[in-house]
Design brief:
Layout lengths: L1 H12 L10 H16 L3 H22 L10 E15 L2 E10 L8 E7 L9 E9 L12 H7 L4 E12 L5 H11 L6 H9 L7 H9 L10 H20 L9 H19 L4 H19 L6 H14 L7 H18 L7 H22 L8 H25 L6 H24 L12 H14 L11 H5 L1 H4 L10 E5 L8 E4 L4 E4 L4 E2 L2 E2 H12 L4 E2 L1 E4 L4 H4 L2 H7 L1 E2 L2 E3 L12 E2 L5 E4 L2 E6 L13 E6 L2 E5 L5 H8 L9 E3 L11 H7 L3 E4 L12 H9 L3 E4 H4 L2 E5 L6 E2 L10
Keywords: Cell membrane, Membrane, Transmembrane, Transmembrane helix
Pfam family, one: Lactamase_B
Main location: membrane
């Protein structure tokens, strides 16, 4: 039985690692082979193959549901119904439209839309909208969040921006949205948005600072309704009935165990419905049902049976669940507890039962967080030691009871007021912990280093007295002291980050790091914080020798403040110092300034006749051996002509396209004089500026220049001075990427 379940799970999980999906013909052959293997008693392999076929079939269905290429970037009138809870942020709202129809052709079943400056949108309403549609696309960076995989796992086939719209039909049966609005109006001591997150799973009301606090203390899972909340609520019901039965207060004519299991499952499922019953909650309820059934009838078969049954049930219902980090973390946490608790003789005291699970989970999830490129909270075990019982025993019961009793005058609102106060006290305590340590993001290492460190964690989770346990900590500490790749003297590693419509390029020599521009910032979306800082930390960069901001436009300098907060910056230079944000203290760009780091030379230039911020862009030339790289910011054709008269106007192999490939730049005279072989373009997919302009692309094509476009390739990395080729994130094939 166990062998078959392992084979089934392995086949379903393999989907996550496929570079591409098999064609229909190959899939039919695989199904036939799997059936023959089952008939010939090769059932483990047969189950693996059939499970893989099912996963591939579902993956292809999700891909086929994506927006057609002919609609990408077009504005169409569509009509559909709003589902879920719309997320309001300032003057914008983000929501999902289901069953969208257009007279121009078939559309994906679910579309994720943003409406800036539009009216309030409520769940259940039917709208007719003019939408600029886009194929699912996200930023691709090392150790970055894979938005495309997330969209596919959600079975969202397109994204879009609403231009205008008309309400066709008012909301019907939108009780969750109405309940959310009522919760947000409650006097909950300033924590109404936290109550909405805890009760309804709606975190849209939490501020960026709130999420940063939760991430820093490793307590995000407490405000994102998942298996832990479902399990805690079920455990409260089960424990309450067990306590009544123990003291003779439960009716003797009713067997307490079946009633405890049934009521725990009903209560947890009701909570799941209240929270929207999305995939993580469905997964939790399914697993809870199997655990309770095991507790009633199959306890003699061992603790791993419900785990494997739940794992396979979740993956069979939704094979794309393996694309989500939450799937791996939730099942890994349960596996760690099963492994550590089931392998020990004797019972632990109440102190050990309270203290040890948090440390064990923190240790056990360390390799999974590392491989998933997620930050690791150093204060997480201590924070959860306090927060988990606080939420489960105090906040959650009062919040749910208050929500259920809202119709009772005075009682429901006062319970929610009390729950809000309990949350506020917890937030104050978490804030103190967050000030101690920032989350740690381990640097990227070869896979064998990760495997050794993961083996060390497994050894440490073994029962005390095992012979191998002394080897555990040295292996785990490889994460801190892993050997890092050394950049040879005379070379510089160049990484153009994928920051959307903006620019950020990291340059690393053997002992120094320079950041050219810091990515864009628009409203609450700061790519300096979301992209640049995490990538620098993953590279092991704790300090920048120089942050060079070409000019003051927000798409180049918007993320600079976040970079300064995230890493130490020795020096800042800008081509437009007066235009920068006030806290930034930068030195002006000085034409002719040169320096050398580790055998690599750097030179600055700025047009003396510049009249606007773009023309003031501080240009950087980097030379490693016989290779040159020219970073130009947003200079236009006039500044290009002036640059050709400077010492930097010499042939260069690598060129950062001026002004993202704008029509006003990359003149033919400029390109012929520099004779670049490769051009780097950093821009947003489907941007409103039309970058890069078709005329500019035609010039590159006419001159035989290779174009590396961040919107198409994601982040791009190469070694200047090695005369090699560039690597892009899309070179790492995944079946969900075009």
């Amino acid at each position: 039985m166990y062998t078959g379940m392992f084979a089934l799970a392995a086949g379903l999980i393999t989907l996550r690692f496929l570079p591409g999906l098999p064609s229909a013909g190959w899939l039919l052959l695989m199904v036939t082979a799997g059936g023959l293997l089952l008939a010939c008693r090769g059932w483990p392999v047969g189950l693996y193959v059939l499970a893989l076929c099912w996963a591939c079939f579902q993956g292809q269905r999700a891909l086929d549901n994506r927006l057609a290429d002919s609609f990408d970037g077009r504005t169409l009138w569509v009509e559909g119904r709003v589902i879920g809870l719309p997320q309001q942020s300032g003057t914008s709202v983000r929501f999902e439209l289901q069953g969208a129809k257009s007279r121009h052709g078939a559309l994906p079943a679910t579309i994720r839309l943003s409406w800036y400056g539009g009216p309030a949108v409520n769940s259940g309403e039917r709208w007719r909208l003019a939408v600029k549609l886009k194929k699912p696309k996200g930023l691709l960076n090392p150790q970055g969040f894979d938005f495309e995989a997330w969209l596919l796992a959600q079975r969202i086939g397109a994204t879009g921006t609403v231009k205008q719209g008309h309400l066709q039909e008012a909301a019907s049966h939108a009780w969750r949205d109405g309940l959310r609005q009522r919760l947000l109006r409650i006097d909950a001591q300033g924590r109404a948005s936290w109550l909405a997150a805890l009760v309804l799973g709606d975190g849209s009301g939490l501020s960026r600072d709130d999420w940063t606090l939760l991430q820093a203390t490793g307590t995000v899972h407490l405000l994102v309704i998942s298996g832990q909340h479902i399990g805690l609520f079920a455990g409260l019901i089960y424990g309450f009935i067990a306590l009544l039965a123990r003291y003779g207060l439960w009716p003797r004519r009713l067997p307490w165990l079946p009633w405890a299991c049934a009521l725990a499952f009903i209560g947890a499922t009701g909570y799941g419905v209240l929270a929207g019953f999305e995939v993580p909650v469905q997964r939790a309820c399914m697993m809870l049902g199997l655990v309770l059934a095991w507790r009633l009838w199959f306890r003699q078969l061992g603790v791993w049976l419900p785990f494997l049954l739940a794992l396979n049930a979740v993956l069979i219902v939704e094979p794309l669940a393996s694309l989500r980090a939450g799937f791996w973390l939730s099942f890994s946490a349960v596996a760690v507890l099963l492994f550590t608790f089931s392998g020990r003789l004797g019972a632990w005291g109440w102190r050990a039962m309270w203290l040890r699970p948090h440390g064990l989970i923190a240790l056990g999830l360390f390799p999974m967080l590392w491989i998933l490129d997620l930050p690791i909270s150093l204060t997480g075990p201590l924070a959860n030691l306090i927060a988990v019982p606080w939420i489960s025993l105090a906040v959650l019961p009062t919040a749910l009871l208050g929500t259920l009793l809202l119709s009772v005058p005075w009682l429901g609102e006062n319970l929610l007021w009390l729950s809000g106060g309990l949350i506020d006290g917890l937030v104050q305590g978490l804030s103190l912990l967050a000030d101690v340590f920032t989350p740690w993001l381990p640097v990227s290492v070869p896979i064998y280093i990760w495997l050794l460190s993961a083996a060390g964690v497994l050894i440490l989770l073994l029962p005390a007295g095992m012979v191998l346990r002394p080897l555990g900590w040295p292996l785990v500490l490889l994460a801190l002291f892993a050997p890092r790749e050394q950049i040879p003297r005379g070379q510089v590693e160049v990484l153009q980050l994928d920051v959307g419509q903006g620019l950020a390029i990291a340059l690393r020599t053997r002992n120094h790091t320079l950041l050219y521009d810091a990515g864009p910032k628009s409203g609450n979306l700061d790519q300096g914080e979301r992209v640049v800082v995490p990538v620098l930390r993953s590279l092991g960069v704790a300090e920048l020798d120089l942050m060079l901001l070409s000019h003051a436009d927000s798409d180049h300098a918007g993320g600079a403040l976040a970079v300064q907060r995230g890493v130490s910056v020795k020096r800042v230079i800008s081509g437009d110092v007066p235009g920068l944000a006030e806290p930034l203290r930068a030195q002006p760009c000085v034409s002719g300034e040169t320096w050398e780091w580790d055998g690599v030379s750097f030179s600055l230039w700025q047009w003396a006749g510049a009249s606007d911020s773009n023309q003031k862009s501080c240009v950087l030339q980097v030379q490693a051996g016989d290779e040159r790289l020219l970073l130009t910011g947003d200079i236009d054709a006039r500044a290009e002509r002036a640059l050709l008269q400077s010492p930097l106007g010499v042939p260069t192999r690598w060129l950062q396209a001026p002004h993202h490939g704008s029509k006003t730049s990359s003149s033919m005279v400029f390109l012929k004089a520099l004779a670049p072989e490769i051009v780097l373009i950093s821009r947003g997919h489907g941007n409103s500026f039309g970058h890069p302009h078709p005329q500019v692309m035609a010039r590159y094509l006419a001159l035989g220049v290779q174009v590396l476009d961040s919107a198409e390739q994601g982040a791009v990395k190469f070694r200047l001075g090695a005369s090699g080729k560039a690597e892009s994130m899309r070179d790492q094939r995944r079946f969900w990427r075009d």
